[in-house]
Specification:
With 114 residues, the protein is mainly beta. The chain is built from 1 helix and 7 strands, in the order ββββαβββ. It has one helix at residues 56-65, and strands spanning 5-11, 18-19, 25-38, 45-55, 71-85, 88-104, 111-113.
Length: 114
């Protein structure tokens, strides 16, 4: 079985690491990923804004090196979760980043972090 997602895009905002009560560190990164084809109505390239959840060392290192507008590649997996909202069960799909490759950073660094 294979559950693999590769995304390349620009970070929409600076990242903030949050430490949960359990001690785990996490941050949420939103990637702006331009589609490779033009919209037939507007003749412009549409952009998808994809939230990616990062954990532990990957979250820390990415938040230290990436600023708003940095270009990164993310190797991720999809994870499903069931939540109950107002007594209704809702299933969600999340993108969980496992590896981030820094392509173009604000300070000119190019490096990879696992």
């Amino acid at each position: 079985m294979l559950n693999n997602v590769i995304l390349i895009g620009r970070t929409v905002e600076d990242l903030k690491v949050v430490t949960l009560e359990s001690g785990l560190k996490t941050c949420r990164m939103v990637l702006a990923c331009q589609r490779p084809f033009r919209n037939q109505e507007t003749q412009e390239y549409d952009t998808d804004f994809i939230p990616v959840q990062l954990w532990q060392v990957v979250a820390e290192m990415t938040s230290q090196h990436c600023k708003k507008g940095s270009t990164v590649a993310v190797k991720a997996r999809l994870a499903t979760r069931t939540m109950e909202i107002e007594s209704v069960k809702v299933k969600t799909v999340e993108v969980v980043g496992e590896r981030v490759i820094f392509i173009s950073l604000k300070n000119g660094e190019d490096q990879e972090k696992e």
